[in-house]
Design brief:
The structure holds two protein chains of two kinds. Chain A is an all-alpha fold. Chain A has a domain at about 55-90 and about 105-175. Helices cover about 70% and strands about 0% of the residues of chain A. Chain A has 22 helices and no strands. Helix content of chain B is about 75%, strand content about 0%. Chain B has a two-stranded antiparallel sheet with strand order 1-2. In chain B, strand 1 (about 25) and strand 2 form a beta hairpin. Mean pLDDT of chain B is about 85; it is low at about 270-275. Classes of the chains: A mainly alpha, B mainly alpha. The interface of A and B includes residues 3, 18, 74 and 133 of A. Chain B: Keywords: Metal-binding, TPR repeat, Zinc, Zinc-finger. Chain B: GO terms for molecular function: zinc ion binding.
Chain lengths: ~500, ~375
């Protein structure tokens, strides 16, 4: 049965005729002269010389770069790479759509518009695929690994790195031997990616398997810089445990705090295994702080001492300072004022030596606080005045204000005993002095009074002890009081007199 | 000059349904279709006419007069809808026959669809393209390459002139062009066209959709014929896994739906007997035919390939078994299931063998219940 032709004209050209048929331009109806005839002949020649366009040639002009790249991949038989590329492009589009046109993602260039990136992708994925076909797992892994590595520099491409690292891991898992260097490396890379994306738990799981694998090959598996995989895994595990632990520590739930402690203990173990004293010190410090939080002060002290020693061994002044500070705080909480003061003094000395202004200021402030609460007002005034001066030099308005108030309070405390004495005795001289002080704010209480009543000292009211926790609120209160001009309290009044001078 | 038979009303030319020359035979069923000869009537009857006879009678009756404009428009719209439905049906039928390899039989259906498409949408519109493509495929099957090229050129041009045409149509065009080049023996050009088919279809449906699998299949065939076995194998593998994914999914969905149904029934009627009454593959006739064509030819290839991977063969058989099961052909399903079990003996994949065993149990149950 004959099919109807589209045009009425019978098509009788055979296949070969059709291909060979030259394209003939229209002949002018009546050529005028030789010139036009020549032109016509010339155009026929040119037309015949033109190559017959194949589909690929046309596509070069008609299609997008990505389209042609995909066609090239497919015609050379790399369909898996093609699928991967299409999926990646689609993933990016979907994420972008989900984020919406006002998001930050929307402004980033798309993968499909970045030619060099597409080329790179094609080069490595096709390489991996041909290796896959030959069952050459090692080569496939290398191709994917290199591709992933090339994306680690740009944070925008992190998702690509994630993808290729996880495919690396899949490739490595296909290997027959259960323990391979490739698998370990793959696990480690995926763990790092997960950590970067804040999936800490899963990252920890990956690192744990990495650790287990590298345990048996401590000697023969080395990184490029000579560190063994085992040590590396310990360091990575330490980092991830610390992160998880600190994160858990921030929550209010008691269970979480317990879990946080467990994590930090694990981190400490890992740091011990890594044989890096510095890490060990850091882990101890974190653990110490965590113990302090749950009120196990003795444990906290032991760990902090470890940190202190580690820092001293390293002659890491900053770390030592931190350690001193933390230890002093714990002693303060235990009520062991002497030790607290001692450590704080060390802290102050250290910072003074090393010239760490900010830490020095903090150290003075803390020491002043402790002295204040112990009742050693002379020293308190001295340290607060140091702290005040330093913070003024540093031009930090917040700490300047706090130190100013504290300084004022300390001075007031120092004066209070004698002031009370004067009030109690109440003879003419004393009253004159009091009145004088009231009018011109110049204290003459230091001068001797002829006959002193020993009971006066009993009437002194000591200020309430400042605990670590409510220090903040106290400071705020004091700051507010500072602005209060009509402070009726004598102490406060006196203090404010000092701010001016 | 044509001779107009006296028996016809004046001005009415009765033309053969297939070849458009004056006709002398009338279909007894619908009385609106004419043929030039018995052969053409027979061909048409086998191709499509038996299925659309009554429908054509309705469509081709003289237009009745309706007094109001609204009524006329309503009738007209109803008629258009009817025609569109007819077009779709004819196309599916033609496509199915093509997949079954009955190229000659598919021509009448394709022509009917083309004729009505022109009637509804007008000349050189994008809606005609599917019909052109079917005609082209039939021509390729019949070995008439020049004709096929004509149709494809027409389709290509129409698509080029329609900037916003869907990628699905483009993909079909490139698939047919690829087939044409395969028939011509120009494998490189065929590859480019199949690649474009896969590209377009991937963007329309996704890389692992069953509608994309056809492109992979044809491409794999080309690589196979070029002797590049490794590539062909890897592509066949992908086709198999696409279908496996789809069929497995459909099967599980069907089973769970049936179980829900039967549970509800047993609650109401207190009968514990579970019966799978309605199973659907979710495919239309053409797609079913395509699936059978693709899977059985892969099966053939794999069976005769000495260095095949036994898992591929097992999975192909499993696919076919599931397909036949979904189509209701239980005996064939069992047969392929058994083949699959034999092939999977060397495969150390517990999950796969487990699913196979479960499938065989399902088959048994179904046969018993029928």
């Amino acid at each position: 049965m004959a099919l109807p032709t589209i045009n009425k004209r019978k098509v009788s050209l055979t296949q070969s005729q059709r291909q060979m048929r030259p394209v003939i331009p229209l002949e002018p109806e009546n050529p005028k002269g030789l010139r036009e005839k020549l032109m016509y002949r010339k155009s026929v020649d040119i037309m015949n010389k033109l190559p017959i366009l194949r589909k690929l040639d046309i596509d070069k002009f008609r299609n997008s770069y990505k389209h042609n790249l995909c066609l090239d991949m497919l015609t050379t038989g790399f369909h898996m790479s093609f699928c991967e590329l299409v999926t990646l492009i689609r993933q990016q589009m979907e994420r972008r759509e989900a984020a919406g046109p006002e998001s930050f993602l929307w402004t980033k260039p798309l993968l499909q518009d970045q030619r060099p990136k597409l080329d790179l992708l094609k080069y490595y994925t096709t390489k991996a695929e041909s290796a896959n076909r030959e069952d050459n797992i090692e080569e496939e892994y290398t191709a994917r690994y290199e591709l992933a590595q090339s994306y680690t520099h740009d944070p925008d491409d992190q998702w690509l790195a994630d993808h290729f690292f996880s495919t690396c891991l899949e490739v490595a898992r296909r290997q027959d031997t259960a323990e391979s260097r490739m698998l370990a490396e793959g696990l480690c890379n995926v763990g790092v990616c997960l950590q970067k994306n804040h999936h800490y738990r899963e990252a920890a799981k990956h690192f744990e398997s990495y650790h287990k694998l590298s345990l048996n090959h401590e000697d023969d598996w080395k990184l490029q810089n000579g560190v063994s995989f085992y040590t590396d895994s310990c360091v990575k595990l330490f980092a991830i445990y610390t992160i998880i632990g600190l994160e858990l520590g921030r929550s209010v739930d008691d269970n979480d705090n317990e879990a946080s402690l467990q994590m930090l203990i694990q981190a400490l173990e890992m740091s011990k295994k890594s044989q890096d004293k510095k890490l060990e010190g850091e882990a101890s410090y974190n653990l110490g702080l965590a113990y302090q939080k749950v009120n196990e002060l003795d444990n906290a002290l032991t760990h902090l001492y470890t940190f202190y020693k580690a820092c001293q061994g390293d002659s890491d002044n900053e770390g030592t300072g931190q350690a001193c500070d933390a230890i002093a705080k714990i002693y303060a909480r235990q009520g062991n004022k002497e030790m607290s003061v001692e450590f704080l003094k060390r802290f102050v000395e250290l910072t003074e030596k090393t010239g760490l202004e900010r830490e020095y200021c903090l150290a003075c402030y803390n020491l002043g606080n402790v002295c204040n609460s112990v009742g050693n007002y002379d020293e308190a005034t001295e340290y607060f005045s140091k702290a005040y001066n330093i913070s003024r030099v540093l031009e930090d308005p917040l700490s300047t204000n706090i130190n100013r108030v504290q300084y004022g309070i300390a001075v007031a405390h120092r004066m209070m005993g004698k002031f009370a004495n004067h009030v109690l005795i109440g003879d003419r001289l004393c009253v004159t002095r009091l009145l004088h002080w009231k009018s011109c704010k110049r204290a003459e209480f230091d001068q001797l009074i002829p006959d002193t009543d020993p009971r006066a000292a009993l009437n002194i009211l000591l200020p309430p002890l400042l605990t670590e926790k409510d220090k903040e609120t106290d400071e705020r209160k004091e700051e507010r009081a500072e602005g209060d001009e009509s402070a009726s309290d004598d102490e406060q009044h006196h203090a404010s007199a000092h701010f001016v001078t | 000059m044509d001779v107009n038979p006296l028996a016809n009303p004046k001005g009415v030319k009765l033309l053969c349904e297939l070849c458009r020359i004056p006709a002398f035979i009338q279909c007894k069923g619908c009385k609106v279709t004419y043929y030039c000869s018995r052969e053409h009537q027979k061909a048409d009857a086998v191709g499509i006419h038996d299925k659309v006879c009554s429908r054509l009678a309705l469509l081709r009756q003289p237009v009745q007069f309706w007094p109001s404009k609204e009524e006329r428009e309503k009738r007209y719209k109803a008629m258009q809808l009817e025609k569109i439905e007819l077009i779709e049906m004819a196309r599916t039928l033609a496509q199915k026959m093509l997949f079954e390899g009955k190229h000659e039989e598919s021509v009448p259906a394709a022509m009917l669809s083309l004729r009505y498409a022109i009637d509804v949408y007008g000349v050189s519109t994008i809606e005609l393209v599917p019909s052109y493509l079917i005609m082209a495929e039939a021509s390729i099957g019949l070995g008439n390459l020049v004709q096929a090229e004509e149709y494809l050129a027409k389709a290509d041009w129409t698509i080029l002139k329609t900037p916003d045409c869907t990628k699905a149509i483009k993909s079909r065009l490139y698939r047919n062009l690829g087939l044409l080049y395969v028939a011509k023996g120009d494998f490189q050009e065929a590859l480019v066209n199949f690649a474009d088919d896969i590209y377009n279809s991937s963007h329309e449906f996704g890389t692992d959709d069953i509608r994309t699998s056809g492109g992979y299949f044809h491409m794999a065939n080309v690589f196979f014929r070029q002797g590049r076995r490794d590539i062909a194998d890897s592509m066949y593998k992908q086709v198999i896994s696409i279908w496996y994914e789809y069929l497995n999914h459909t099967l599980t969905v069907n089973i769970s739906a049936q179980e829900d149904e039967s549970r509800r029934k047993s609650k109401m009627l207190n009968s514990a007997k579970t019966l799978m009454e309605e199973i659907s593959s979710g495919l239309d006739e053409a797609q079913e035919a395509e699936a059978i064509q693709i899977l059985s030819s892969i099966h053939n290839i794999k069976e005769h390939q000495p260095d095949r991977q036994s898992k591929d063969l097992a999975q192909t058989c499993h696919n076919l078994a599931m397909l036949y099961f979904l189509m209701g052909d239980l005996n064939k399903a069992k047969e392929y299931g058994r083949k699959s079990i034999v092939a999977s003996d060397q495969v150390k994949d517990d999950k796969f063998s487990k699913s196979l065993v479960e499938f065989m149990k399902l088959c048994e149950r179904q046969i018993v219940s029928n």
